[in-house]
Amino acid sequence: MAVSEKLISQDFAEQLEGLDIRLFEKIQSQTTERDKRSLLACQMATRTLRPNYTYLEIGSHLGGSLQPYLPDEQCRHIYSIDKRPPAQPDERGFNYEYHNNSTQRMLNNLKGISEPALAKITCIDEDARNIDLKNIEHRPQLCFIDGEHTDTACFTDFLFCLKALDRDGLLVFHDAPVVYNGLAQIVSYLQDRRIQFNAYNLPDTIFVIEINDFPVHRMPYIQEMLVNNHVGYLMSLQYNDQYRRFYNRSLFKWLRNLKVKMTKTHVSE
After folding, report:
1. What share of the chain in percent tops pLDDT 70?
2. What's the domain count of the chain?
3. Structural domain for 105, as ranges
């Protein structure tokens, strides 16, 4: 390894250990600063538990969430799955549009981080439901699900990742306050099949599921986030506060009060 490559490797390791969100600065990522720290914590925990690991993500867009994995020498393989639609539905009630949404555009962005590291990326432009597991030659230990933000897609993406995942591994979801019904369905699925798991929220909108023996929650930087879990909890509630504000408009309040008076549900004996 050349001297410059050693320095880059050392700088990266120090940044990752410090959960330095500057690792996300070169490519736009639709994540908050605390989301970024949580994602780096999951990456740090994974490489601690599995010194040589594979990363898989669903929903790459510009490559923002891929960028910390390129300089990580312990990350040997990367799978980027994105069906690359011009627009896709969303549980918030409108379609999200993605202009010039192409794999080549993403790779051009990532080239600026590490062109040699592009060799470890396998791109699959397809819905996860249609992908043959034979295409996932290296079992991932860490999967990040950030594709179509509907409950149905959240669940089907989970099913694919669960099948692709190594025996022990980590499933990480973005925008939990949007796809919470899908996440509830996932938890029920795991419980019904008696699959060993631990599930929890990390700030701001990250939902984590440990499958089998993958105790990420024991890592100090994860434990700190869990002890102060009010951060993610309150953020999730505030994320959806717009719906409460809409529901509390004068007309709706008047209709609710009328219903309460007619049904007398406001009377206690």
Report:
1. 94
2. 1
3. 3-228
Q: How do residues 179-208 score in pLDDT, each as one tens digit?
A: 999 999 999 999 999 999 999 999 999 999
Q: Is residue 76 part of a domain?
A: yes
| Contact assessment for residue 87 and residue 97, using Cβ atoms and an 8 Å cutoff | yes
Q: What is the pTM of this model?
A: 0.90
Neighbour count for residue 103 (Cβ, 10 Å): 16
Q: Is residue 22 part of a domain?
A: yes
Distance of CA 45 to the CA centre of its chain: 15
Q: Domain holding 104: CATH number?
A: 3.40.50.150
49 and 93 Cβ atoms separated by less than 8 Å: no
Give the Cβ contact number of residue 62 at 10 Å.
Answer: 19
Over residues 27-36, the pLDDT tens digits come to: 988 899 999 9
Q: Nearest CA to 243 among 91, 102, 124?
A: 91
Total residues found in the chain within this entry: 269
Residue pair 74/13 in contact (Cβ under 8 Å)? The answer is no
Tell whether 249 is covered by a domain: no
Does a structural domain hold residue 33? yes
